[in-house]
Each structure stands twice: as C-alpha cells, then as structure tokens.
Amino acid sequence: MLFSLYIKNFALIEELTVAFHPRLTIITGETGAGKSILLGALNLVLGDRASSDLVRSGSSKAVIEAMLKEVSSETIATLLHNAGVEIAPELILRREISSSGQSRCFINDTPCTAALLKKAGEELIDLHGQHEHQLLLHADTHETMLDDFALTAGEVMAYQTSRATLQGLMRQAHSLKQDAASIREKKEMIDFQLNELNSVELKSNEVESIESEIIILENAETLFTLSSTLNELLYESEHSLYSGIAAALHTLEKLAAIDKRFDIHLQESRTATSIIDELSRFTRSYASGIDFNPQRLDGLRERQLLLQRLCKKYQRTLDGLIELRKELEAKSALEENLEERLNLIEQEVKSRKVELSREAATVSAKRQKAARRLETAIQEQLAGLGIPNATFIVSMTHEAHPDGDISVDGSAFTAFTSGYDKIEFLISTNSGEKPRPLIKVASGGEISRVMLAMKSALAESTNLPILIFDEIDTGISGRVAEAVGKSLKKLSRLHQIIAITHLPQIAAMADLHLGVKKSLQQERTVTEVTPLDHESRLQAIASLISGHKISASSLTLAAELIEGAK
Length: 566
Known about the structure:
Layout (H helix, E strand, L loop, with lengths): L1 E9 L2 E7 L4 E6 L5 H11 L15 E9 L4 H10 L6 E9 L4 E5 L2 E3 L1 H11 E4 L13 H9 L2 H48 L5 H13 L1 H17 L4 H18 L4 H27 L4 H21 L3 H67 L6 E7 L8 E3 L2 E3 L8 E7 L7 E2 L6 H14 L8 E5 L7 H14 L4 E5 L3 H4 L4 E10 L2 E8 L2 H13 L5 H14 L1
Parallel strand pairs: 3-15, 3-16, 8-14, 14-15
Antiparallel strand pairs: 1-2, 1-4, 4-5, 5-6, 6-7, 9-12, 10-11, 12-13, 16-17
Helix pairs in contact: 2-3, 4-11, 5-11, 6-10, 7-9, 8-9, 11-12, 12-13, 15-16
C-alpha cells in the first residue's frame, strides 16, 4: 500500500506529508486548489519526466518521496536485486529536481535511474487520469489481464517452455543449414585439394629424408673412392695402419711381461686394434653397398620438386600440408555428419511443433471460456454504473501464416509469446453501435466507468495493489455517481484506492477524506492537504452539494450520504 507521500518545494506546495488509508482515500477541493499537484508529484516519483518549472520559486530543489508498505511483488524484488538496491520491509521511492533542471532518483536511498523508478512504479501503482492512456486501454496488455482472470499461468508457462525449446532447435537447424551450405559451396575445392594431397601420400620428415638421400646418390663415386682408399690405409696395404698397430701391440706385450706399468697402454692398444678392425669392416661393407642408381636419383629429384611445388602452392610446410589434409578430411566428413544431425533436429522440430500446437490450443480454449465469463461480468458492472446497454467483447483472433509454427485444424498460424491468440477488448456503450477498441471510446465519463468496471471485474486477479483515479466522476451525476462510489468502495476491499472527485456521492464513501485548499501565507500562495474529521467532512461534502453557501439541508444530505456509505 501507499503509506505516505512527502512533498517539499514542489509547485505551490511548500512542505507537507500526506498519509493514505489502506482502503479508500478520497481527495476533494475547489478547482485550482492543487489536487492535480498531488498527482503530478506522485507521477514524478513514479518516473515521469521532470522539469525545473516544477520547483517552487526561490527554492534550490524539489523533493518528492513515496513510502510504500507491505510490498510483496516478486517482480519488484527481482528489479531491486538486479539493480543492487537493498530490499527492506518498506519501499521508499524518492525524486529530487533541482532548479537547474537536473533530476536524481533513489530507491531505498540507493541512487537509480528514472527508468528503474518508472518500472517499479508501474508494477505497484496504476494511476488513471482522464486524458492519459491507461494500462487497460492498451491492447498489448489485454492478453495478460485475460490470462490473470482465466488462471492460465501454468498452461502459458508450459507453452512458453515448449516455444523456447522449439526456437532453440530451429536456431540449431538454421546454423547447421548454413554450415552445410557453406561446405557444399566449397565441396568441389575441398575434394580437389584432398585428392591432390592424398595422391601424394605425404609423410612427416620426408623432405629431410629425400634431401639426405639425394646428396648420397649424387656423390656415390666419391663415396666409393674415399671408402676404398680408407680401407686400403686401414687394412689392405702392405704398410696398413692395422699391421703397424699389430706389430706395436706385439712389442708392448713383451714390455708388459717385464714391467707391469705397460699394462694400461697394452689394453688401450688392443682397443685401438679393435676400433681399426671394426672401421675397416664397415668401410668394406659400405663400399660394396654403394648404389650407383641414376633412375632412383631422378625419381627423388622429381619427388622433391613435387613437394616443393605443393608447399609453395598452399604456403605451408610439409607438416602443414599433412595437417591441412586432416582438416580437409574432417570437413568432408562434417557434411555427412551435418546432414545426419540436421535430419534428426528437423524431426525433433516437427515433434515440438505438434506439442506446441496442442499447448497453444489448450491455452486458447481456456481463454475462450474465461472470455465469455469476463464479458458477462463487465457488462453487469457497466449496467450498475449507468451504462445498461453496453456490449463488451473479448476479441480473440489468430494470425494465419504459411510457415507458422502453430497448426490447428490443418491451418498454420504465428506462434506468439504466450500462445497463438491476438486478444483485444472491444466495447459499445450504446445500443446499435458496433463494438470498438477501448482506446477509441470517446466520452470521458464512459471511459472512467469502463475503467472502473474492468478493474472491478479483474480485481481478484490483477497484480496492481494500488489504484488511483483522477476525476473518475467526469460526465456523471446522480444515481450513476452513487453507483460509481459504491463500486469504488467495494473495490477498495481488494485494492488500495485513491480518488479525486467533485461529487458528494463518491466523497461520502471515503475511509479517509483529504481536503485540499489554497491559502495565502506571507504573501505567497500555498497548497495544503488536511485529513478531515467528521465535522469538516460534513462541511466539505455539503459544499460539493450546495457550493460556497452551505445550507442546513445540504449538511443534512451530506450526513445522510455518509451514513448511507457505512
């Protein structure tokens, strides 16, 4: 509930605090006294655009602060949490407007944006002014209101879950189709490159191996000559190194037999003999195994040239070409995998569309039943409010679409966020007139009563706990005014209501009656708001009946109206 509103240096208000009743608060006062200033201040603290013109002359800034209690809205809690605002038992919205035009917003003393303030305000308070487009006048809100009345939250949630799943699958399918199309466009090139690389039978380190073998084949004669010469020097010639060391070894053996100090040198010489013997055998074998093969050399050179051309063509090393071959093989295999995955997803999409269509039909059927009940309820309310010939219709249509995700009775329709229904409230307030959208209802008095009738019909389901009516009595009087007052009184059992009125029949229904008056203080005009006691209420209501000159009969009638409202 809106517990209080603090206003300082705003327009004609110097400083005041207004407390409100949890049920029905009525505000009255002469034209120009400042009733609209109260609502202007409330609008600002709910996020409306600010102007420095609203700051009281001579003041540096205006301050408006609304305190709300018993706020139990999950949406508000989420808003505050996401904005880093501390959640407390009391919700305090504050707006400061400087004389230079700058504006500052706070929620629970935490700075915030005007947008956040507006979101919070829209969730808590529905302020209905005669010339403003209200929540109920906007067709895009009608679906939510009907769903609240129809209690379709569970069915709508199931539909939305299925729709989100379907959209996710369709995004996957779209992405796979794009990937597959991209691969198909490049498939000819991929196949050509893959065939080219596969035909070469690439091997890691082949370039180094070829280069090494080419060097050996190019120098085969030199290698044969040198290895043969080395073998002669080591073993085959008359004065070979092996013969010399063998003779030296024989002499060392004799010396070591006499002096043991030669033993170590004897062992080293034997090792040298073994080394020379092994080297000699290797050179003989090497020389005999040298391949004088010009055909092999030509083949290696051709292979080397082929690899060089491929590396240059693809601007990669040999290892890079091997990696490229793996990438191309993966891409070639990917197309087959994509097609398989795409087929599976498309089958799942079809299944999900069937499920979504069934859930959309369930939601729509429940809405249809509730729509008939809502039509009857609002027409009954309007009859009690002096519009006996009203026709109220909940229009439910569907948007046919050849590629729509919803299929009902063989026809395809667009899947909207909460179903496949397009819902709009239509009304005719006079016999013979065709029902039209609410926003096109011309009469101010009719608009006010339609709004009240709808709020009464939706009272138990709407999430807005605070309803504020500015000039709900426009264009009505007498019996209709009494009916409007009683309707407000009844509605206030479910919602806190604040209403500005000029009619005594409505003012008499107040649980709290606030009087607004304008006075001159220290040569400056000041607007004051005062809670009225029983006597001052009688005077205020009597003045609504007879004007400035209050008569005994008007006082009597005021008393009767107050008594009749109990």
